[in-house]
């Protein structure tokens, strides 16, 4: 008869201890850091929101630029009558997209006669009022054509540039000079 628990087989106890020690020293269970996961997800959402906002701003900017670039610009209401309809040799508003040739002043001036052999040296017209630039060109025996352009930096009626540019090669007497004239800021301000 037995008086206690059944005896273990020899070596069983040693194997059991080794198995428990091996389990305890084995790889640990993964630790889940919920706060770190939430921060990563939040950064990802923020990046996507910023990219979406930047893309929307780019589309809006392109649409605005396109609107103002394609919008026809009416002549400024304060423009002098000589600019809206050519009279007495005034500059001609550009209607077809190309400058017109020919002299607006049929009688040669003293300056024109002095420079007729080698061509006329064109002065720099940028920054001048369009009336002054037109008078100067007519005095040189040249005609002018006006192309209006919206410009944030130049007041309405100021010459932005000319074609050909002032200081470039001399131009032939009776040539037409294209004047790019500001209409001022969009909206007429």
Quick overview of this protein structure:
This protein has 5 helices and 4 strands. It has helices at residues 12-25, 34-70, 81-84, 110-115, 130-139, and strands spanning 92-93, 143-149, 159-163, 176-182.
Key words describing this protein structure:
alpha/beta; 4 strands; 38% helix; 11% strand
Written description of the protein model:
The protein is of the alpha/beta class and 189 residues long. 38% of the residues lie in helices and 11% in strands. The protein is built from five helices and four strands, in the order H-H-H-E-H-H-E-E-E. The chain has helices at 12-25, 34-70, 81-84, 110-115, 130-139; strands spanning 92-93, 143-149, 159-163, 176-182. It has a four-stranded mixed β-sheet with strand order 1-2-4-3, covered by helices on one side. The longest helix has 37 residues, at 34-70. The chain is rod-shaped, with a radius of gyration of 42 Å. Mean pLDDT is 74; it is low at 78-89 and 96-116.
Describe the SSE topology.
Elements: H1 12-25, H2 34-70, H3 81-84, E1 92-93, H4 110-115, H5 130-139, E2 143-149, E3 159-163, E4 176-182
Parallel strand pairs: 1-2, 2-4
Antiparallel strand pairs: 3-4
- What integer value in Å does the Rg equal? 42 Å
Helix count equals 5
Mean pLDDT: 74
Coarse morphology: rod-shaped
Poorly predicted runs of 5 or more residues: 78-89, 96-116
What fraction of the residues are assigned to beta strands by DSSP?
5-15%
What class would the helix/strand composition place it in? alpha/beta
- Summarize the biggest pleated sheet: 4 strands, mixed
Strand order of the largest sheet: 1-2-4-3
Total count of strands: 4
Order of helices and strands: HHHEHHEEE
Report how far the terminal alpha carbons are from each other. Answer: 116 Å
Please estimate the helix content. Answer: 25-40%
């Amino acid at each position: 008869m037995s008086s206690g628990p059944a005896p273990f087989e020899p070596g069983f106890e040693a194997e059991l201890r080794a198995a428990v020690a091996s389990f305890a020293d084995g790889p640990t269970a993964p630790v889940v850091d919920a706060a770190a996961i939430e921060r990563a997800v939040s950064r990802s959402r923020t990046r996507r929101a910023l990219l979406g906002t930047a893309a929307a701003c780019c589309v809006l900017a392109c649409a605005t630029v396109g609107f103002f670039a394609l919008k026809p610009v009416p002549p400024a209401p304060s423009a002098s009558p000589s600019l809206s309809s050519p009279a007495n040799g005034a500059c001609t508003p550009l209607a077809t997209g190309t400058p017109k040739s020919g002299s607006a002043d049929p009688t040669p001036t003293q300056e024109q006669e002095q420079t007729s052999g080698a061509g006329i040296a064109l002065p720099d017209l940028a920054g001048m009022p369009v009336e002054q630039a037109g008078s100067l060109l007519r005095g040189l025996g040249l005609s002018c054509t006006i192309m209006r352009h919206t410009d944030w930096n130049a007041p309405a009626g100021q010459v932005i540039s000319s074609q050909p540019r002032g200081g470039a090669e001399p131009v032939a007497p009776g040539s037409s000079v294209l004047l790019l004239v500001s209409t001022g800021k969009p909206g007429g301000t």
